[in-house]
Design goal:
- This protein is an alpha+beta fold.
- It contains 14 helices and 16 strands.
- The strands form three sheets. It has an eight-stranded mixed beta sheet, with helices on both faces.
- A hairpin with a 5-residue loop joins strand 14 and strand 15.
- It is globular.
- About 2% of the residues have low confidence.
Length: 419
């Protein structure tokens, strides 16, 4: 799907995005209505958005960022998103990861993100995030656990067996806090917020790792509370300090796991964060509808002379060009597909430039065409040799198991000819 909704209290609109190689928007608190959402921490919760590209996230803003007078935690109607700042010249703060429990893959992905951001003309500034990270620890070691108990405690009292054991333990910890603890914690957050305000005088936005490490399901099952605390290292502080955030993919780590970083800014800077994310992705990411149609890159069975090319003709597609991708993809002859199809996978290293044909489709025809694409293929951003990013056929790494790597042929036609 091009877009999905989630909720984000401590990072649930950013951590899943990072682990799946997609983009995630954690709005400024109160910008998107939370009416009807089952709460975790009612005062912190945000409805979040997942998408394949930052361009799709930007389209969602126009629909979702509306004042809701029925939402008790909505910002006032006068508090609206500020305009997107120009990307070039922005001051981007980068944390020093020394002394933090961050693995090598995360350090490498942050370094790659900083390199690509530097190419956009931003000013990179080292920053000390110890204060804001300390604020984040209050989320699971402070009275906000009592607010979680307020949201779900009645269910626990009525039907204790309805909750997972880890959920029950987290909620039960909320009973340990007194009213005085709430006021003490609020004062600590204000102190950290003041330090954060000083930070914004030095930089315009931050770029941080989305997660400190890549964990397996087995590691989460063995220590769900401990692992989730680590996963929230760079996400927990954002809602407590009333900030906005956009998670964006960087590529793949050396171990094949998706890597991502998160842009963080003051409240109401969402459009600036999304503008940076779109530029980071290579322009506007997936292109928006234009009068001359939406470009679509095809790599296999939809090429001219191939068995599914008629689907493009039926959709009224117009041939634009025959070209190659940027050298960041590998091609597989997928097993068990009829008619035979290739899968193009984006890789962190050892990629190649592959032959593609680019067509344009009217917006409504493009939507119908995309709706007909079936797993394991999907439509996502594809970078061409000239640096443009267009929509195109992609495939997930997991679908290539048992398939033949045919990258060396440089394209589907050459592979078929060699056979």
């Amino acid at each position: 799907v091009p877009l999905a909704l989630g909720t984000d209290t401590a990072g649930s609109g950013r951590v899943p995005a990072a682990m799946n190689g997609i983009a995630g928007w954690k709005p400024t608190r109160g910008i998107v209505s939370a009416t009807g959402v089952v709460p975790a921490c009612r005062s912190l919760d945000c409805v979040s958005v997942f998408a394949g590209t930052a361009a799709d996230l930007r389209a969602a803003v126009d629909v979702l960022a509306r004042h809701d007078p029925d939402d008790a935690h909505a910002r006032t109607g006068a508090e609206t998103l500020g305009p997107a700042a120009a990307v070039a010249g922005l001051r981007v703060g980068v944390p020093d990861l020394a002394g933090l429990d961050v693995d090598a893959g995360t350090r490498a992905s942050l370094g790659e993100a900083v390199r690509r951001l530097s190419g956009l003309g931003v000013e990179i500034t080292p920053v000390d995030l110890s204060g804001v990270l300390e604020a984040g620890r209050l989320l699971y070691h402070g009275p906000w656990l009592a607010e979680r108990l307020e949201a779900a405690g009645e269910l626990m009292e009525r039907d204790d067996g309805a909750l997972l054991d880890v959920t029950r333990r987290v909620l039960a910890a909320g009973r340990e806090y007194r009213a005085v603890d709430v006021f003490r914690a609020q004062t600590r957050v204000r102190v950290h917020a003041a330090a954060c305000e000083r930070l914004w005088r030095a930089v315009d936005i931050l770029v941080v790792p989305s997660v400190p490490a890549a964990f397996t399901l087995a590691e989460v099952a063995a220590d769900p509370i401990g692992v989730n605390e680590r996963l929230g290292t760079f996400t927990n502080f954002v809602n407590l300090l009333d900030l906005a955030a956009v998670a964006m993919p960087v590529g793949l780590r050396a171990d094949g796991v998706p890597a991502g970083v998160t842009l963080v800014g003051p409240a109401l800077t969402d459009l600036t964060l999304l503008a940076v994310a779109r530029a980071f992705a290579g322009g506007d990411g997936m292109p928006e509808p234009r009068p001359d149609g939406i470009p679509l890159a095809v790599v296999g069975a939809h090429l001219r002379g191939q068995p599914l090319h008629h689907e493009l003709r039926d959709a009224g597609a117009h041939f634009l060009q025959r070209t190659r991708t940027a050298p960041r993809y590998r091609l597989y002859a997928l097993s068990g597909t009829a008619p035979p199809k290739p899968g193009m996978v984006e890789v962190h290293a050892d990629g190649a430039a592959l032959e593609v044909e680019v067509y344009t489709l009217a917006a409504d025809a493009f939507g119908r065409f995309v709706a007909g694409v079936r797993s394991p293929l999907y439509i996502g951003p594809v970078e061409l040799a000239d640096g443009r990013v267009v929509s195109g056929f992609r495939c997930g790494t997991e679908a290539t198991a048992g398939s033949t790597d045919i990258t060396r042929f440089g394209g589907w036609r050459a592979y078929l000819a060699a056979r």
